[in-house]
Write a structure and sequence with these properties.
The complex is a heterodimer of chains A (about 400) and B (about 250). Chain A has about 400 residues and is mainly alpha-helical. Chain A is about 65% helix and about 5% strand. Chain A has a single domain, classed as Orthogonal Bundle (ABC transporter involved in vitamin B12 uptake, BtuC).
């Protein structure tokens, strides 16, 4: 179905269901309960889940599939964001031209950087991409201020021309981003008992694009092109002596991967129309590496999982402060409570990076294949018995044949 | 005029003369062996043929065309395939996937952006890969992870991958290095079969005299970067210069 085999089609259906039902799944706790702070089902965070999912899917094509570790992918994210905001300033507040422009601009940018960086492999390639990304960051931060508005960041203003749209709304305020008139920020809140499920237009636009991006990535994985990329990762020497030119393949995947990053950047700007240089920082590039490895590099669904986990930590654990902790440990005697709070507060709030770091260490040490490998081990644990039965069945059926 | 003509090839690495004045003529559809002690320049010569190294002097002509200045993948497309001393296969891929890559290379050339049609829908490629695997007795291992195969099977797979491209010239770099006697004999049988069944020229570099004398039609002896003698196996065995330079006291029976 859709050109996929059964297993991949089921995976696509599962991802589709998860994405569509996310407002329910991410909101398991009633709004007034103590656990409500663990709810992730609000528009801003859900949008980030899918946008960074796109970013990580694209990065995985380059890193997981082809084996080229780029340390500068955030540059393409930034280029995408800037192009999208410029579309909002010049054309209209519709997200369609913005997203198209962000994909094209980042693709061209990736072609330039890839053409030079891909002359080297391994660590030298990583360093080259890192250098280019830091260069882009500095250009955006200071040199190219007329285009990027420097450290303030690029924003839309009431003075923008917007030749296809309106400069200002009738009430005199800045218009908002929309798709065919549906505003990205508009949210429908469904109250069920004490639960409040939020359905956001922007989230579903991002989710639809993420599903498309995921589908394209599955098709690339299963295509002859994808086989060549895996072969590049496995053995470049053999490929060279098999009459295949590696450069066009790596350049093609680098550009595709850059376009995914640009798409993610364009969507970020479409949800919240501003773009700052910090999106191109090396920390942002490092984050997508973490996402991909944490979820499982080279797997289809891994990068999306990794992006979700990291964004969840970043937004949920960072909000827990010492007063929340005090209420959690309130059942303890006072001294113990203080001690418990003292220890655990280093792992939450601003210290959420510590928790993430520990999690990352554990995953990389014990599950080199990432969270996906963890899932596979679990399912194997449950399936072990049926497999034995199947083996016995097949040996029994052999004589009959 | 042979299919492969090497004329006056010389190569220096700094002060070391790896090759000097090498002349070699390989007749079409023959098996030509290059032997010589360690450091004689056998592998350097092979690297000059496939474009990994560029000789300082001389010319290398394949089928009337110069290979010099071409990249390894371009030389491969002229019809030269190489088997390495340690098998170079795609270890992360299954046997079948390994086989499909040279099949794609043969059908589509150096680069084909073919991102949409699934591999499983490429019936012609699958049929081609399976027929070569069947020839090499590897068909039952088609779904095996290629890195987990035995060394002999890896070698067999590498040869199969080269044959799938239907090359005119097959270069073998010590195909039996590090193999047990039984595996060596299997490889000899395999190569004999390839020699007899296909229109193919084979150049083989080998240490094992048993292999060389059971396969080769002509033998070139290299010593210190220069060809010492070139002749049919029977003459090489008794040649005094060869004994002195290479075979030493342990002359083969």
């Amino acid at each position: 179905m859709l050109g996929l085999d059964r297993k991949d089609f089921i995976l696509l259906l599962v991802v589709f269901a998860l994405v569509v039902l996310a407002p329910f799944l991410l909101n398991p706790f009633p709004t007034n309960s103590a656990m409500a702070q663990f709810n992730a089902g609000y528009p801003d965070l859900m949008q980030r889940f899918v946008i960074f999912g796109i970013f990580a899917i694209g990065f995985n094509l380059l890193f997981g599939l082809t084996g080229y570790l780029s340390f500068g992918h955030a540059a393409f994210l930034g280029v995408g964001s800037y192009s999208a905001v410029w579309m909002f300033k010049l054309l209209s507040m519709s997200v369609v031209p913005a997203i198209i422009a962000s994909v094209i601009a980042s693709g061209i940018f990736a072609l330039l950087i890839g053409y030079i960086s891909l002359r080297r492999t391994g660590i030298y390639f990583s360093i080259l991409t890192l250098a280019f990304a830091q260069m882009s960051f500095n250009l955006a931060y200071s040199v190219l201020t007329p285009i990027t508005n420097g450290e303030t960041g690029l924003q839309i203003t009431l003075a923008d021309p917007r030749i296809l749209g309106v400069t200002a709304t009738e009430s005199g305020s800045i218009p908002v981003t929309n798709l065919l008139g549906a505003e990205m920020r508009s949210t429908y809140i469904m109250d069920v008992g004490t639960w409040a499920f939020q359905f956001n237009v922007g989230y579903y636009v991002c989710a639809a694009i993420m599903l498309l991006a995921f589908y394209v990535s599955v098709r690339i994985f299963r295509s002859p092109f994808g086989l060549m990329l895996r072969a590049i990762k496995a053995n470049k020497t053999r490929l060279n002596y098999t009459g295949l030119n590696i450069r066009p393949y790596t350049l093609a995947v680098f550009v595709i991967s850059g376009m995914y990053a640009g798409l993610a950047g364009g969507l970020m700007a479409s949800m919240d129309p501003l773009a700052g240089a910090e999106r191109m920082q090396w920390t942002a590039s490092g984050e997508v590496v973490l996402m991909t490895i944490l979820g499982g590099a080279g797997t289809l669904i891994g990068p999306v999982l990794g992006a979700g986990v990291i964004k969840y930590f970043e937004n949920i654990f960072s909000k827990i402060n010492s007063s929340v902790l005090e209420s959690w440990f309130a059942f303890m005697p006072e001294n113990m409570q203080h001690a418990a709070v003292y220890v655990s507060e280093h792992f939450v709030g601003p210290g959420w990076h510590l928790t993430l770091g520990l999690l990352f260490m554990l995953v990389v040490t014990f599950l080199p294949g990432g969270l996906v490998e963890g899932g596979q081990r679990l399912s194997r644990l449950f399936r072990r018995k049926p497999q034995k039965d199947a083996a016995r069945d097949s040996t029994q059926s052999n004589p009959a044949e | 005029m042979g299919i492969l003509e090497v004329k006056n090839v010389g190569k220096r690495f700094g002060g070391l003369k790896a090759l000097s004045d090498v002349n070699l003529s390989v007749a079409e559809n023959s098996v030509h062996a290059i032997i010589g002690p360690n450091g004689a320049g056998k592998s350097t010569l092979l690297n000059c043929l496939v474009g990994k190294l560029i000789p300082d002097t001389g010319s290398v002509m394949f089928d009337g065309q110069s290979v010099l200045g071409r990249k390894p993948y371009q030389i491969n497309q002229m019809g030269i395939s190489r088997v390495f001393q340690t098998p170079e296969i795609f270890g992360d891929l299954t046997v079948m996937e390994n086989m499909m890559i040279p099949c794609f290379a043969k059908r589509d050339g150096a680069f084909e952006l073919n991102p949409i049609r699934a591999i499983t829908a490429q019936k012609d490629i699958i049929a081609h890969a399976e027929s070569v695997l069947a020839d090499m007795n590897l068909l039952e291992k088609r779904d095996m992870h290629s890195a987990s195969m035995s060394r002999g099977d890896k070698r067999r797979l590498e040869i199969a991958m080269c044959l799938a491209q239907e090359p005119r010239l097959l270069l073998l770099d010590e195909p039996t290095a590090g193999m047990a006697r039984a595996d060596t004999n299997n490889t000899i049988e395999l190569l004999k079969e390839i020699r007899d069944k296909r229109n193919i020229t084979i150049v083989i570099i080998e240490h094992d005299m048993h292999v060389v004398f059971s396969l080769a039609e002509r033998i070139t002896v290299l010593a210190q970067g220069t060809p010492l003698v070139e002749d049919v196996p029977a003459k090489i065995k008794g040649h005094p210069k060869v004994r002195e330079a290479y075979l030493g006291e342990s002359q083969p029976a």
